[in-house]
């Protein structure tokens, strides 16, 4: 007779960190802010759109906004398609996980298949320039016909009213200097901030982790030379270095885009992380498990990336959250000074730049972007501080 299996009391390190994290009310507030920011960015086409989401006219049911999900008419096509792909993939994938929850192998196969299928229309659907006034065209529909617009029926590039309108019923956040709806540009500006924050910080992680691992593990002359170079780079004020590099790029007639901003921020922000990773690796390097790996003849790269790296993920995750907040601030500052993403791409910093001539008169161009930047940065900082406490074994 088989004995009943005893319930294990083992709790994984990840579960311990999550238990500490969720007990922190400030952390939950920050996490809710981040989730809200992601929701706005991902569902932007359903929140603000100048085209009907659903149109029934002349007996034909159509979805005019759908084409521009797969082929957005914007200069920053890559970033827009990235968020639209997440939109197209995310909800069906969640539904599949719920439906096939009791069949683990089948559910992951379904999600993987949908991930491939969902990306196909982004390559097959071509861009098309269209300047139709859908609101005017749908104003006099016949009986039985209908059009369903997004809650904010204006696109981010659409001249929807008079310049510098104050908040009103038609434009709840007002309009900018050329009459574009500020709320719509705020919604799509969240995509720019998140893209720069996440991708630039990911680039920072790659360089910082690799340099820190190599210097910490090998030590010696290589460690000495590389760390002196890192210290020289750190002597320059980061934001000033960003301005200099962006000015050089613009002077060489390079295209001013989100990808360029991401590259510049990512390649100038890795030095601090490399020092953190190096310090953690120096501590772990002397641990018995590393000596055991070396005595077993494991390759250096396997030791660094399969054994050392998983044991220093705590400080890296904390640095990542703070890095995202710093990258969002850096992008907003560059756009405010005219060195960020190019017009007409929607950006919170670009809206602040429009109010520079008279901030009190154009207060609606100062308040809303400023509040969005404040909420985003504070949310990531709250989560970063909570992760720092959660990874600390003395926090219990």
Supply the key terms.
single chain; 396 residues; mainly alpha; MetI-like fold; 3-stranded antiparallel β-sheet; 17 helices; 64% helix
Chain-wise SSE layout:
Layout lengths: L12 H10 L2 H18 L1 H4 L6 E4 L2 E3 L4 H4 L6 H23 L4 H21 L9 H4 L8 E3 L33 H37 L1 H16 L2 H14 L6 H11 L2 H15 L2 H8 L4 H9 L4 H24 L11 H7 L9 H28 L5
Antiparallel strand pairs: 1-2, 1-3
Helix pairs in contact: 1-17, 2-8, 2-17, 5-6, 8-9, 8-11, 8-12, 8-15, 9-12, 10-11, 15-16, 15-17, 16-17
How would you explain this protein's 3D organization?
- With 396 residues, this protein is an all-alpha fold.
- It has a domain at 183-395: MetI-like fold (Orthogonal Bundle), CATH 1.10.3720.
- The chain has helices at 13-22, 25-42, 44-47, 67-70, 77-99, 104-124, 134-137, 182-218, 220-235, 238-251, 258-268, 271-285, 288-295, 300-308, 313-336, 348-354, 364-391, and strands spanning 54-57, 60-62, 146-148.
- It has a three-stranded antiparallel β-sheet, with no helix packed on it.
- The longest helix is centred in the middle third of the chain and has 37 residues, at 182-218.
- It starts with 12 loop residues before the first helix and ends in a 5-residue tail after the last helix.
- The mean pLDDT is 86.
